[in-house]
Model the fold of this input.
Amino acid sequence: MKAAEEFLNPVVRAIPPSGIRRFFDLAAEMKGVISLGVGEPDFVTPWRIREACIYALEKGYTMYTSNLGLKELREEIARYLSQAFRLRYNAEKEILVTVGVSEALDLALRALVAPGDEVLIPEPTYVSYIPCTLFAGGVPVPLPTRMENGFRISAAQVEKAITPKTKVLLLAYPNNPTGAVLNRQELEDIAAVVREHDLVVVSDEIYAQLTYEGEHVSIARLPGMRERTVVLQGFSKAFAMTGWRLGYAAGNEAFIGAMTKIHQYTMLCAPITAQMAAIEALRNGLGEMRQMVRQYNYRRRLVVNAFKELGLPCVEPGGAFYAFPSIRHTGLSAEEFCERLLREERVAVVPGTAFGPSGEGFIRCSYAASVANLTEAFRRMGNFLQRLRKP
Ligand code: PLP
Done:
């Protein structure tokens, strides 16, 4: 018999384990670690949302829902997208409720990408984009971004990377891991290139609500873009609902129809209890969501100032809950820096290289952590940096 590994799909076999996982495993073995490593709200889901789920269970809501998701939820999503982001979608045909944005991303790529199609992906990139492109049979084409440009991609950069095989531009703003956002003009310039070369955009807007200065602009809102964009949104970050596994995709009928075709044979539907809770989140949970966003904004300023004081250059993040400072001047690689910071000071952050080679020289710190933990983590980081200066 062949070795078990030899039975595996070579595409899956070739994908290395997540660079974040290794640090979690290391941190889990240690005591007294302050983690700024995870991209997860430190808040518990607001009570009214949890209560809606309990009530749904009491009432016996334990069945499958329609493949698209509960009609009531899709109607709430359509209303919310329209009011919050001026995006208009038909609840009957243009919205699909999914098991997190993770599933929506996988479905979008599998529905759109044919073997050999190229997918443009700004880098540093969220860890799932390249593996999911490969699972779909596509070819990921990273577009490296630089601190000097605020980690924002430009229209010229997109245009330069386009080949006859390019099919999809994957946008993710506000960005994980850099916290970068694109303004309307930058999006308009990119949209012009997308239209000219007849591409499709998969726009992961999971952090849209966590935009701290000005309003979040979805590329789907720009002229001529609605029909060539799939917007991915969800409940994990804004409503502190990571464990509920609920997200959604909005797009034209053909895109959503194709995604639903895959979803109905794989996932069937998202959990009904999470869907019932999400209806409450959109109907009555926006106030609590905004309160959490205010907290993140307060912490964001604290973190940016703290990095300034520590002498680590850091682009001010415009969204999400991550800072991505440079540690180049320490002479350590991102991996070495993170491993030593963890072992010597018990602070867990993620090496920028977990998000692609252009992340070398950077670390990702999540500020979805309490002010007390952030303050203590920065005190420890200060000690560490001082020791690096005077060995
Ligand atoms: N997209 C981005 C950019 C993320 O950072 C994450 C989670 O960290 C996800 C998608 C996954 O979200 P979900 O919990 O909705 O699957």
Notes: Residues 286-310 form the longest helix (25 residues). The chain has a mean pLDDT of 95. Residues 39, 100-102, 126, 172, 176, 204, 206, 234, 236, 242, 247 surround pyridoxal-5'-phosphate (CB under 6 Å).
